[in-house]
Design a protein that fits this description.
The chain has one helix and eleven strands, in the order βββββββαββββ. Strand 6 and strand 7 form a beta hairpin. By secondary structure, the chain is mainly β.
Length: about 130
């Protein structure tokens, strides 16, 4: 139902810090029609070329300044993921993704105050890393 909101096309790239590739990142839209606190993210899963990234290696941010592990995000109530604004997702992986084509699958699930089940969106894309 919310698959079209997940994994914004053209946003997957390697993450470079201090001249070193430390992982890869992508952006997604919310799987809901309103904003939510970051703590209402039920789970995020990333799979690249059939290999699921460990949850402890995933970081998220609403502003690209403050980054949270998924465990930390469980208690983050002061940052809101606004409708229409992307959530930035990073996967820590030394060397990132190699140059060329990759199959990347992103799953995002959020909770809401009055719907008893998480709203899940899944999107798989072929991406090209330069």
């Amino acid at each position: 139902m919310f698959d079209n909101n997940v994994f914004i096309d053209g946003t997957c790239k390697n993450t470079v810090q201090d001249g070193k590739i430390t992982g890869y990142e992508m952006q997604t839209n919310i799987t809901y029609y309103r904003s939510i606190p970051v703590s209402m993210i039920e789970y995020i899963k990333v799979m690249a070329d059939g290999q699921e990234a460990p949850a402890e290696d995933i970081r998220i941010s609403v502003d690209q300044t403050d980054w949270f592990s998924l465990k930390e995000a469980e208690t983050v109530t002061t940052y809101k993921w606004e409708y229409g604004e992307p959530l930035y997702i990073r996967v820590l992986k030394e060397g990132g993704l190699s140059a060329g084509k990759h199959n990347v699958k992103l799953t995002v699930a959020t909770r809401t105050a009055y719907i008893p089940v998480p709203l899940e969106g899944i999107r798989e894309r072929e991406v090209v890393i330069a």
